[in-house]
Amino acid sequence: MKATLLAKPLTHARVEQIADQFAMPDLTLPFWGYRKKMPMHQIVRLEGEGNYTVFHFVDGSQLMVSLTLKKMESRLSPKVFVRPHKKNIINLLYLDSIHPDPQQMRVSLVNGDQVDVSRRKASRFIKQVKGFQQELQVLAVQPSEVLAA
C-alpha cells in the first residue's frame, strides 16, 4: 500500500524558492583538512555510520564527514529536516511517498532511496510531515497575496 504525500515532486526551482523562504543557509562541513560550504537545500538525506555522517545530495553525489549524525542534526533546519530513524535524517523537500506497513513504515525519496521509520518515532514523524505540508500551503498562498496588494 502506497500513500503519496505530494501531488507531484517539487521542481528544482520550487525547492530553491522554498529554501530562500525557510532561510536555509549553506552548511560548512569539515572535509580533509579544510572546510567546504554545501547548500543545505541540496541535501536529500544524511546517513549515520558510527562517528561519521554520509551526505546524499540531489545530484547523486555523496560526501562523508567526521561528525556524528547527532551533531549534524543540531546544525540543520528543523522545519525541513526530520529524523525518522536513528540512522537517517531526511529532507522533507525530497519526500516522495510514505509506505504505511503494519510491520515497518517506510518512506521513499525522490532520488529512489527508501528509509525506514522507527515504530517509536512514527507518530511524531507523521505530525512533522503534516506540519511541513501546511507550511508549504501557506508559502504557496503568500506570493499571490503579495501580487494582489
TrEMBL record:
<dbReference type="Pfam" id="PF04397">
    <property type="entry name" value="LytTR"/>
</dbReference>
<dbReference type="InterPro" id="IPR007492">
    <property type="entry name" value="LytTR_DNA-bd_dom"/>
</dbReference>
<feature type="domain" description="HTH LytTR-type">
    <location>
        <begin position="37"/>
        <end position="131"/>
    </location>
</feature>
<dbReference type="InterPro" id="IPR046947">
    <property type="entry name" value="LytR-like"/>
</dbReference>
<protein>
    <submittedName>
        <fullName>LytR/AlgR family response regulator transcription factor</fullName>
    </submittedName>
</protein>
